[in-house]
Amino acid sequence: MGELKLDWRVCSRARLSRDPRFDGKFFIGALNSGVYCRSICPAPTCQEKNVRYFPSAAAAAEAGFRPCLRCRPECSPGTPAWLGTSNTVTRALRLIGESGLEDGGVESLAERLGIGARHLRRLFLKHLGASPSAVAHTRRLHFAKKLIDETTLSMAHVAQASGFGCVRRFNAAIRDTYHRSPTQIRRLVRKTNSLPENEYVFKSGFRPPYQWESMLGFLAMRATPGVEAVERGTYRRSILLNNLEGHFEVSLSPEPDTLNVRIQFADPRSLFFIMERIRRMFDVNADWEPIARRLRADPLLRSRLCAKPGLRLPGCWDGFELATRAILGQQITVKGATQLAGRLVRSFGRQLSASHGLTHLFPEPQVLADAKLTSIGLPASRAEAIRHLARSVCSHEIDFNTVTDSYTLLSRLGELPGIGNWTTQYVAMRALGEPDAFPAGDMGLLRALRISSPRALEARAEKWRPWRAYASMYLWHFNRGGSTTRTD
Questions:
Q1: Residue in 257, 283, 298, 442 annotated catalytic
Q2: Which of 117, 212, 317, 485 has an alpha carbon 20 to 30 Å from 325's alpha carbon atom?
Q3: Is the dihedral of CA 334, 340, 344, 350 positive or negative?
Q4: Cα-based torsion angle of the residue sequence 220, 333, 304, 290 in order, rounded to the nearest 10 degrees
Q5: pLDDT digit string (tens) for 154-165?
Q6: In the annotation, is 394 catalytic?
Q7: Which domains does the chain have, with CATH numbers?
């Protein structure tokens, strides 16, 4: 069913050319071998009459094809959230990425999205060619395969980490899907160097082009001292999850179109969640072509896109942390906000044993809810805004981790004292990954276009929809690293 949504002529050209720009945007089912592949698969090319095209890996699996062991579909960039899908499907995919369907299945997922389970299944079949359960199962299988290939975890731990619960179900699912046992699959993999305890290394594919140096430059300017560090082409940060401390680092791999991710964390059951969040943080699912096609229509942006093709939308590890940073950055420079963030962390953050410059965790909402924030030199109004934000997160009035409706969350955020349109739109861009978010009151954007008012800027930006967040990245990038200061 899902394959009918695709233009087979485009898919055929991409398959024959092995064009990496199409990696993960569709999958190829080979009738003669019964496997499904990525568009970049190095296997000998099948005749057109022997292939079928699917919009997602789950759709190919539902049609009876098994994953290719050579091109490893589990390493593809993933289906872009905006590639013809509805907002409801996009939100559902994010929730599945966060926790699978562990909390009540499809019915519970549909209820959180405010629709019926039957309608949700119809939307998934229409846009992805597979049911929500099939999508969740395929993602779980793909992550299990990555753990088998890329870690030395025991199979019992792989089963737990990939959400299968028991080893028997895990073994049966892997054997049914790959026609091999987990142990047989691991024997096929080239041996890698052993890693320290609780350390894992993964590869995460992306579609070219990708401006890695620009991504690092953006994050480096805003790296919170003690919590984040950028050096020698690598981004590092400390994390707290389920009250366990850890850290990760991301760098560009020598392999084409791939990021290396190194995670240090004690609970392997959290690895899927951590990897999904890192993938969003580095915008690896983005599909450059439709973004560029729209933005090139603006003469000012056209030259910038040609000079730096593939700028991505930097995300964040934690929505509360990003929103707090956004408040710190109101009406001051990026450098000034970073210095304030460092003071905040040193005063209120939990200390870590130093590792690669990571000395603290970012303060939790419970800590900042009643903290004396003026003691770090923060104006009283901004200190009060952060306290209100922290209290709203503690009471679950605002929940960045289970966002089902961006509009509702941003409306609640905008009702808090000291938080205006600039802050909510910046949070939408970086915490929620909204591709059309647009902080029209940003001084850097206004200066870049030599426009005097946010209203005039919004009118100019209408032609950039639905990619205004990416247009903002280009304007900031060519404005000496950008501004995050507000006018509202």
A1: 442
A2: 212
A3: positive
A4: 70
A5: 999 999 999 887
A6: no
A7: 1-189 (3.40.10.10), 199-284 (3.30.310.20), 291-305+435-488 (no CATH)
